[in-house]
Amino acid sequence: AIKNREIRPYLQPIADRDGVIVGCEALVRWVYKDQGVLPPFKFIPSLEKNGMIAEVDKYMWRCACEILAKWKQRGWNLFISVNISPKDFYYIDVPEYLKSLIDEYHLDPKQLRVEITESIMVSDTEKTIDIMGRLRNYGFIVEMDDFGSGYSSLNMLKNMPVDVLKIDMKFLGKSDDTQKADTIVKNIINLSMELGITSLTEGVETQSQYNILSDMGCKLFQGYYFSRPVPTEEFEELVIEKN
Ligand code: C2E
Ligand code: CA
Ligand code: CA
After folding, report:
1. Looking at the CA of 84, which ligand is closest?
2. pTM to 2 decimals?
3. In the chain, what are the helix, strand and coil shares in percent, each to the nearest 5?
4. Best substitution site from 43, 83, 119, 210 to test ligand 1's pocket, by max atoms within 8 Å of Cβ?
5. Over the stretch 203-235, which tens digit does the pLDDT of each residue have?
């Protein structure tokens, strides 16, 4: 599928408090024959089981670097966040690999952000802290993905070498007590501010959610309200149109 160019990155914009697109997240899609566009949940679990996930992730990271190199030539200063599967750590030295990639494409490491899911923090704290620290030493911006899903204690944040906290609205959407959910988000945003960590909420679907989160002090936003994940060309049109 990689050889046939069926595996592709879709890009979803990340906006700041002024609604300006400052970057995006690269999300994998498998454009498979007559099946249309397959979302990750249809194939990532099996790839994680059989070990092939590392090949797909390495390819996605390379695609991100290619896009960043093209944008650099255009004078665009946007970042791309890439996903790392916890399983990747078994197969490759992720910090070393990413470092060699940005060197190959002559990029600033700040432009390639690295998303590590919170759940791995709980199962393998020390190893994850070590990897995050090494990524940061190379100059990458480290993001903790799906914050709130892994039941790690807020207390752990003190020791985490992380730059950005991605809070997923989906975890809170399920709650039937929205007031409680609001309080939780508000406190996470405040806490990250105090710790010098940038807060990002994802799954922002409405203007009112955007306004509320913005009032709470959240710095970055991602969600259908701005756009769904789209092919690169479409994302570039969005940037030209909105920025
Ligand atoms: P994630 O990293 O948490 O990515 C965010 C997911 O939320 C994406 O689903 C995105 O399309 C979806 N989303 C964005 N905005 C909204 C919104 O406003 N409302 C709702 N309901 N959903 C929204 P997607 O693209 O299906 O990806 C699912 C998961 O698959 C990702 O969750 C990530 O864990 C994994 N994944 C995606 N791409 C890659 C990849 O290249 N490598 C690895 N290892 N995992 C990936
Ligand atoms: Ca992610
Ligand atoms: Ca997420």
Report:
1. 1
2. 0.96
3. 50, 25, 25
4. 83
5. 999 999 999 999 999 999 999 999 999 999 999
